[in-house]
Structure formats: structure tokens, C-alpha cells
């Protein structure tokens, strides 16, 4: 039986990945999920993650 590789574009790093989670309409790859969880709010990357996560409930257009 053939397995089909399905890739999704991460809403944080904008890379195409196989594994991750969906939060509403936003796909987050496993790597970014771990980075978000372990980033201290005082770190500069934190603001970037917050900015990207603001789009969490906005549906994307599937063309």
C-alpha cells in the first residue's frame, strides 16, 4: 500500500512540513511549536510569534 505524503505550510516559518498541528486555521509545524513553547516572553523572537499567531482564526484561501 502506498502512503501519500501531505505537506502543509507552517504559519510561523512559512516552510512546507509534514508534521504539525492546526490551531483553528493556522498550521504550526512541530519545530515551531517547540520553539514557541520554550521561548521566554523577554526574548526578541517572542514578539514575532505573537504577531504570526494573531492570524490564528483567519481562514486561508484555498486556490
Secondary structure: elements and pairs:
Blueprint: E1 8-9, E2 16-17, E3 20-23, E4 26-29, H1 30-38, H2 44-53
Antiparallel strand pairs: 1-2, 3-4
Give a brief description.
The chain has 63 residues and is an alpha+beta fold.
Looking at this protein, list some descriptive labels.
63 residues; alpha+beta; two-stranded antiparallel sheet; two-stranded antiparallel ribbon; 2 helices; 30% helix; 19% strand; globular; Sigma-G_inhibitor_Gin
Descriptive notes:
With 63 residues, this protein is of the alpha+beta class. The chain has one domain. 30% of the residues lie in helices and 19% in strands. It contains two helices and four strands. It has a two-stranded antiparallel sheet. Strands 3-4 form a two-stranded antiparallel ribbon. The N and C termini lie far apart (29 Å). The mean pLDDT is 87. This is Sigma factor G inhibitor Gin.
Read across the widest sheet, the strand sequence of neighbours is: 1-2
Stretches where pLDDT falls below 50 for ≥5 residues? none
Class inferred from helices and paired strands:
alpha+beta
Oligomer: single chain
* Shape descriptor: globular
Total number of β-strand segments? 4
Question: How many structural domains can be distinguished in the coordinates?
Answer: 1
Number of helices: 2
Percent helix among the residues?
Answer: 25-40%
pLDDT averaged residue by residue = 87
Distance from N terminus to C terminus (CA atoms, Å) equals 29 Å
Elements, N to C (H/E):
EEEEHH
Pfam families: Gin
Protein name: Sigma factor G inhibitor Gin
Organism: Aquibacillus salsiterrae
Amino acid at each position: 500500500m502506498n502512503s501519500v505524503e501531505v505537506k502543509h505550510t507552517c504559519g510561523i516559518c512559512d516552510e512546507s512540513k509534514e508534521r504539525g498541528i492546526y490551531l483553528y486555521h493556522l498550521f504550526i509545524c512541530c519545530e515551531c511549536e517547540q520553539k514557541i513553547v520554550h521561548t521566554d516572553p523577554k526574548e526578541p523572537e517572542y514578539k514575532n510569534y505573537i504577531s504570526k499567531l494573531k492570524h490564528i482564526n483567519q481562514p486561508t484561501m484555498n486556490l
